[in-house]
Amino acid sequence: MSVDDRRRKAERIRRLLDTEGDSVHENTRVFNEGRYESTAALEDYEELKDEARAIKEDAIERLPELLDRVTEAVEADGGSVYLADDADDANRYIEEVVDGRSVVKSKSMTSEEIEVNDALEAGGADVWETDLAEFVLQVADEAPSHIVAPAIHKSREEIADLFNEVFEPDEPLETAEELTRFAREYLGERILDAEVGMTGANFVTADTGTLALVTSEGNARKCVQATDTHVAVAGVEKVIPNVEDLRPFVELIGRSGTGQDLTSYLSLFTPPGDSPTFGDGAGAGSDDERPLESGDDREFHLVLIDNGRMAMREDDDLRETLYCIRCSACANSCANFQHVGGHAFGGETYSGGIATGWEAGVHGEESAAEFNDLCTGCSRCVNQCPVKIDIPWINTVVRDRINRGAEGDFDFLVEGLTPDAEPGGLDPQKRLFGNFDTLARLGSTFAPLSNWVARTDPARSLMERTLGVDARRELPAFERESLVEWFEDRGARVAPDEARRTAALYPDAYTNYVRTERGKAAVRVLEALDVRVEVPAAGESGRAPLSQGMVATARSNAEAVYEALSPVVAAGHDVVVIEPSDLAMFRREYDRLLPEDEHAALREDSYEVMEYVHGLLANGADADALAAGDGERIAYHSHCQQRTLGLEPHTVSVLEERGFDVATSDVECCGMAGSFGYKSEYYDLSVDVGESLVDQFTTDDTADRAVVASGTSCLEQLDALLSRRPAHPVRLLDAR
Q1: Torsion angle, CA of 381/387/390/391, rounded to 10 degrees?
Q2: Of 702, 583, 680, 581, which is closest to residue 634 (Cα–Cα)?
Q3: What is the DSSP string of 172-184?
Q4: Which of 65, 326, 554, 732 maximizes the CB count within 10 A of its CB?
């Protein structure tokens, strides 16, 4: 990426932070809190997700068969089914059906994808969006910024100004009630005059051809029942086997997207439908009412669109994208999306975490490239997805393909900071951060000189111009003696025959070369609990290159780490990890990078350090061997992946047991996300996300508390944004 490209992206993000950020943040926060509350009330939440996942897996596996079945079902009832190859093919068919007549539409992301409105209007048809948010965007001539709430970036005041300017009502519109009433009346007239109703479909059942639409306004029903021609547009992935299969999705989609136990309207249409359509009169009871037309006279057209989906089905890494039910949970739970919205974190059609898969599949990798790096791989979306899609992996794979596409050769071997199988055209910024272990090793070897040079103005300016490392971000200071070297000189202090357990403390690159004090504290804490500790030279876990989309390098790192730790695992000893993102590698991402047996062995025997301490204390270790808090007040922030793995409670429990008064943050992300916060194009967004955490740690209750955080990124961000230097929780337990 050139300097100009970085500046352009940074300026665009700053503009969106200023103009749309507040509205997006407030609305996604409401959705997020609603989802937590609503899903917590489901006793079988995880079972429902498993069931939904299984149905989608089966449906995509049998998709050609299901397309034949749904075609037979719809045509048997007198409807028509058209399988469109791409957007142009779909629009040609729909234009022929519409034939210049007036159209009213309910919300449909698939119709946005194929840009059917433009195609129909070019053919002379009047087209009206009847979903309130889509209507707002149609009037404003803007693209959606969210999959479920397309106008989430607009405030009530902005919508009022827009309507007053465009429609010039007799009395200015101000309140939400006034705006809604105006839109309802305005669109009601268009619906009564329309000849064609167009909808999407959340699901299409192959056995009966039933369409399931989940809406909050009921406008889809009006679009269907007020017209005598119904055109439904859906991607082929929306087809599921049977009507009975709708059950888990009905339970999950509203809760996952907007935090509603059930959306206002769940509509099931089995076309052509036996409901009569409204006539040309003003409605029931009017003097000019004419008899309602018979449902037998209605036309129904189901347009099922491929547009890259069948190719995605054959792609082992993009295939999961087709399981998506478009609920937007990934967007709502993403800290970057919460602050900047879908006009930055989105492509031609789709937004949020899953957008990378959709954009790469239906529009091409170039569309995904514009926003793909906004996914930091924090994994917050993983537990929120109702069909358990590994969204971070899809983002990583597409990032890897974009990297390689820059070179045009998927197998081009180069020499970078370390030999790897990455493309020669890889952005130097990504190569730098992806090889952090090598950089840290060199920095440590030449410390303190390397630290001094890196802090000089000429060096900072050069790094910003050539590598995009923002000069406003303080760089880490490397220690002259690494943790591994310190331990080699010091040696183990617990004899094998006196040990309760034996554990290898994994020396992640940051602990090994930068924050060695937390590694030393971890060694002393474990030894105080009668654990014999080893600190093997295991190398970088692969997290750094994986975050840059350097999958080949990450796999090479994973293989080296397993080789270094395999003797420990084979001996039945434990692996203790300080950095939560590295533990997430061992437990999750290594499933993609290592053979199954190697991943399973490392996953089962690896623990986060505070999780491990909690387990030791629960099994009889002497808690008094650890430092006592004596009521010390601390403010604790847990790491994203630590929360995803369900490990935050262990840290809180241990600290409270040792007498610390713990206040925990409910801000879910610090905004730093490893290298993300160092990049000049994303620095402002990183700080904007971090300010939410600062606000929480500067209240009357937290302003005087010592700040504690588990993750490296969290510690770096808090150190930069607060006047209090934060510490890792294991240091509080160190009697030294």
Answers
A1: -50
A2: 702
A3: ---SHHHHHHHHH
A4: 554
User: At the topology level of CATH, where does 64-309 sit?
Assistant: Rossmann fold (3.40.50)
The Cα 342–Cα 331 span in angstroms is 8
Question: How far is 269 from 213, CA to CA, in rounded Å?
Answer: 8
How does residue 617 score in pLDDT terms, banded at 50, 70 and 90? very high
| Angle made by CA atoms 149, 155, 156, in degrees to the nearest 5 | 105
168: Cβ contacts below 8 Å, ≥ 6 apart? none
Reading phi first (left if > 0) and then psi (alpha if -120 to 50, else beta), residue 283 is in: left
Q: pLDDT over 90 for what percent of the chain? A: 89
Dihedral, CA of residue 557, residue 560, residue 565 and residue 570, to nearest 10: 120
End-to-end CA distance of the chain: 47
**187 in Cβ contact with 219 (< 8 Å):** yes
- Note whether 245 and 55 are within 8 A (CB): yes
The SS3 of residue 104 is strand
How confident is the model at residue 284, as a pLDDT?
Answer: 39
* Angle of helix 3-19 versus helix 21-40 axis, rounded to 10: 70
Model confidence at 715, pLDDT cuts 50, 70, 90, reads: very high
Domain ranges of the chain: 64-309, 483-732
Residues 222 and 280: their CA atoms lie apart, in Å, by 14
**How far apart are alpha carbons 327 and 39 in whole angstroms?**
14
Q: Which of 708, 725, 624, 710 is nearest to 662 (CA)?
A: 708
Give the pLDDT of residue 417.
Answer: 42
Nearest alpha carbon to residue 80 among 235, 229, 216: 229
Q: What is the pLDDT of residue 118?
A: 96
610: pLDDT strictly greater than 60: yes
Paired tokens of 567:
């003797």
- Look at the pTM and tell me if it is higher than 0.90: yes
* Helix 246-258 / helix 21-40 crossing angle, nearest 10 deg: 140
Q: Is the pLDDT of residue 8 over 90?
A: yes
- Spatial separation of the C-alpha atoms in residues 680 and 581, rounded to whole Å: 23
Residue 117 pLDDT exceeds 90? yes
Per-residue burial over 685-703, b if 16 or more Cβ lie within 10 Å, else e, is bbbbbbebbbebbeeeebe
Triad 680, 640, 693: Cα angle to 5°: 65
* pLDDT, average across residues 639-644: 94
Average pLDDT of 682-703?
A: 96
Phi-psi sector, 572: left (phi>0), alpha (psi -120 to 50), beta:
left
- List the Cα angle 689/694/699 in 5-degree steps: 140
Joined together, the tokens standing for residue 222 give 């009006």
Report the amino acid identity of residue 52.
Answer: A
Task: Of 200, 195, 58, give the one whose Cα is nearest residue 116.
Answer: 200
pLDDT digit string (tens) for 403-413? 988 543 333 33
CA angle (619, 623, 625) in 5-degree steps? 125
Residue 80 has phi, psi (to 5 degrees) of -120, 145
User: Helix crossing, 609-618 with 648-657: angle to 10°?
Assistant: 50
Beta bridge partners of 293: 277
Report the side by side order of strands in the sheet with 265-269: 239-240, 203-205, 211-215, 265-269
> Does the pLDDT value for residue 112 go beyond 80?
yes
Q: Indicate if the pLDDT at residue 416 is higher than 50.
A: no
Q: How many C-beta neighbours within 10 Å does residue 269 have?
A: 22
